[in-house]
Amino acid sequence: MSKEQASPETKGVTVQLLSTMDLGPEIEGMTGRQFRMRLVTIESGGVFGPLHDHVDRPGLVYILQGTITDHRNGVVTDYGPGVGWPEDRDTTHWLENRGAVPAVEISVDIVRKG
């Protein structure tokens, strides 16, 4: 595994749950699933790891502040404010903040309850 593919453990990350919605009563076939919105802050030098996938947990991310570096399938991409990315079943990645200011994102996803 190359240095770019190495995935360190999480450090310098704060996650605040903003809201959830039980999808069972809303959409047929979604019993046991929940729509979730979180505010994620990655401090300068912080890492959101380790390497993880989004199989059975699709989501979207939107950057509010700073720059987040996404390490995905051997490709490194920087995302800044006003930009984001999808997290689908083919997503396997980890994130870091290489910048000098905290990076803040809104993350929404569908997860299993509990």
From TrEMBL:
SUPFAM superfamilies named in the record: RmlC-like cupins
Record-linked Pfam families: Cupin_2 (PF07883)
Top-rank lineage group of the source organism: Bacteria
Residue ranges constituting the Cupin type-2 domain according to the UniProt record: 39-108
Protein name: Cupin domain-containing protein
Lineage: Bacteria, Pseudomonadati, Pseudomonadota, Gammaproteobacteria, Lysobacterales
